[in-house]
Amino acid sequence: MRLTSRMLRQLSLVLAMLAPCMAMAEPNMIYLVRHGEKAGVGSDPELTPQGRARAQSIATILHRTGIKAIYSTPTQRTLQTAQPLAQRLGVEVQHYDPRAPRALVEKVKALGGTVLVVGHSNTLPELVKLFGGAPGADILDDEFDRVYQLINGADGKVSTVLLTSVPAAQ
């Protein structure tokens, strides 16, 4: 009887020690999107009605993915793209500097879990590469529908899945 009790305690201790390792082995996902359609030009334009509809579409697509953190550049168009999902999840949008992509990558990797990053056509491909994914073709100026899903496998390899966001009919 004592031997069984002792073995159970030891087994419990081993399982308790392995639990964090098993949690780390679970794949984390990173979603990266470009801001929605922007109104005109200028240094900090807002989203158009179609861009706001796209932001709602992204929120609908991603709200059940387990996102725990959302990062956006501090521009109006990226913040407005991130906001519908942030409100739905009750998560605060955190700003990052698009000129310091490595700092963002380090921060996200240290966090673990599932994350959304909202950026720009000229910054997303580099971020995808830095996270270990495959960005594919350049993002065109009039292309707003690309959603990258980067899946970190237990083997350390990153799989890139390219999804599409579609704005709601207006």
Describe the structure.
The protein is an alpha/beta fold and 170 residues long. Helices cover 41% and strands 21% of the residues. It is built from 5 helices and 6 strands. It has helices at 2-25, 49-62, 76-89, 101-111, 124-130; strands spanning 29-34, 67-72, 93-95, 114-119, 146-152, 158-164. A 6-stranded mixed sheet has the order 3-2-4-1-5-6, sandwiched between helices. β5 (146-152) and β6 (158-164) form a beta hairpin. α2 runs parallel beside α3. The longest helix has 24 residues, at 2-25. It is globular, with a radius of gyration of 20 Å. Residues 7-27 have low confidence and may be disordered.
Summarize the structure.
The chain has five helices and six strands. The chain has helices at 2-25, 49-62, 76-89, 101-111, 124-130; strands at residues 29-34, 67-72, 93-95, 114-119, 146-152, 158-164.
